[in-house]
Amino acid sequence: MATLADYGPEVRAEVKQVREVVSTLHQQLIKWNLVVWTAGNVSQRLHTADLFVIKPSGVRYENLTPNSMVVVDLDGNVVDGTEAPSSDTASHAYIYRNMPDVYGVVHTHSTYATAWAATGQNIPCGLTMMGDEFGGPVPVGPFRLIGSEAIGEGVVETLKKYPKSPAVLMQNHGPFTIGKDAEGAVKAAAMTEEVAHTMWAARQLGDIIEIDQADIDKLNDRYQNVYGQH
What we know:
Layout: H1 9-31, E1 41-45, E2 51-54, E3 70-73, E4 78-80, H2 89-98, E5 104-107, H3 111-118, H4 128-134, E6 140-141, H5 150-161, E7 167-170, E8 174-179, H6 182-205, H7 213-225
Helix pairs in contact: 1-6, 2-5, 3-6, 4-7
C-alpha cells in the first residue's frame, strides 16, 4: 500500500496546503449551523495526484487540525494520517472517480435540508437565488445505507438527472454537495440549508410559486457566467 512518502515533493506540498484548507472549512460548517457534534464532513481532491483529504471519523470539530486530516486515494485507502477517515469516505471516493470535474465534496445533516430529505421531497425552485445556484429544484436522491460507496452512487446518479445542481438531498439521510473545490461545496451546503429553510417557511404561508424553467436557465447563466468578479 502506497504512503505519502512514495509521492514527490509537489504532491506532498499540495497535501499540506489542502489539509489546512479542509481543516479550516470544517469550522465554516459550525459557523453556518450545518452540523452538530461530530456529524458531517468536508473533503477536497488534489490536482497533482489521485488523492483527497477528508475529516477523520468521530472527531469533534474543536479538536480538528490540519494534521488530523486524513489523506486517502480514490479507492478510499488511507495514504497518510493517524486517524481513521470519515465513514463517508467510500462515497466521497466514488463521487471523485465518477465526476472528474468535482474537487470538493461536503456532507451535512443541516436541519431544514434534512427535513426535506426525510419527507423524500425535492425543494421546489421558488426563489431566484435557487435558479442562480441550483438551476432548478434541489433534488432528492435515493435511500442508501451508510458505510459503503452506495450513497456516492446515489449522489452521482441523481446529479446526472440534475446536472446544474451542486446539491442532492439523500433520502432519510441529508444533503451532499459538490464544487470545483471544497470551499465551493461548503458554499453549496450553506445555500442548500438557506433555501430549505425559506421554502419550508413559504409552504407554511401557502402554495409555493415555482419559477418557469426558461427563466431559471437565464438566472443560472447570469449567475454562473456574469455575476461577481472574473
